[in-house]
Amino acid sequence: MICLALSVSGRSEALRNEFFQADLEKVLSSEGASQAEVKRIAIGRVVVPNGEQKIIAGQSVVTNGKIAVVGGTVEPVEGGLAVTRGVVYVNSQATQAAFPLIVRHVLPPGFRGIVVAGLLAALMSSLSGVFNASSTLFTMDFYSKLRPSASQHELVWTGRVATTTMVLIGLAWIPVIQGARGLYDYLQSVQGYLAPPIFTVFFLGVFWKRLNAKGCLWALAVGFALGVFRLAVDTPVKLFGVQYPEGSFLWIVNNIFFQYFAVLIFVVSVTVMIVASYLSAPPDESKIQGLTFGTITEEQRRQSRATWNWRDVAASAFVLACIIAAYLYFRG
User: How far is the CA of 279 from the CAs of 146, 251, 271, in angstroms?
Assistant: First the structure.
C-alpha cells in the first residue's frame, strides 16, 4: 500500500481527468450507450471534492490507491492545526471568532480575499460531495432496489428530495456540534465510533482468508450498534446539557474518552467477526481467489509488482516521513 504514492501529488488530478475523459469517449462512441450511462460517468467525473469521492474517480485499483495515499498526506497537519488553539489558550470562550479576526486584521487585502475565496470553495466542495454521496447512496442502493421499475426521472427527483433532506438534517444537527468541544473534536469522535467495524472488515478480510460474509455482517452490525449507542448517549449531554447520575452506566459510557471507546468497538468487532465466521461455513476458495494475501497467485504478484517503481517508493517514503514529522511536531 505504501508503494502506491505518486511522485508528484498534482498528477492524481491529471490522471483522474484523463481516465474519465477516455471512459466518457468510449461510452459515447459505443453502440447502444444509454443516456443514464453517460450521465453517471459525467457526474462521477465532476462530483469528486472529498478524499473518499476522489477515489471513486480512479479507473483502476492502482490509481485509487495513489489518490488515497497522496490525499491523506495532509491529514496529520490538519489535525495538529485544528487542536492548536485549544493547546495555546484552552480557557478561551470565543475560539470560533479567532480565525475571522486574524483574517480581518492580520492578512493583507489581496491575500485576505484569496483566503476567504478558498474557504468558501472548500466549504461548497465538501458539502456538495457529502450531499451528492448521501443522495446517491439512498437512491441507488435503497430506493432503486425497492422500486426496480422506477424511471430515470423518478430516480432524479428522489435524489433531489434525499439531498434536501440531508441539508435539513445537517442544519438541525448544528446545535449538537456547537455543544461539543469543537468541530474537529466532534468529527473525530463520530469517526471513532463508526469507523472501527469498517476497518475490522477490511483489515482482517485482507489478511485472514477463513473469515466469511456472515462474520463481516455481524461485525458491522454489532460495531455500528455500539457506535450509534455512544452517539445516542452523548447527544443529550451536548445538546441539552443533560447530566447522568454519577457512577451510573450511562455516566460511565459518556465519560469514556472517545478514542478508548473506539478501541473497545474495534476489539468487540474483531471478536464478533472471528466467532461468527468460525460458527459458519468457510468461504468458497474460488470466490476469494486473489482477494487475500493467502490466495494471491504468482501471476498476480508479478502484476502487482509491475504497477510501481522506484519513484513510487521514493514518494511513499516522503509521504511517510511527512506524516511522522507532523505527528511528532503536534504531539504536544
Answer: 32, 35, 12
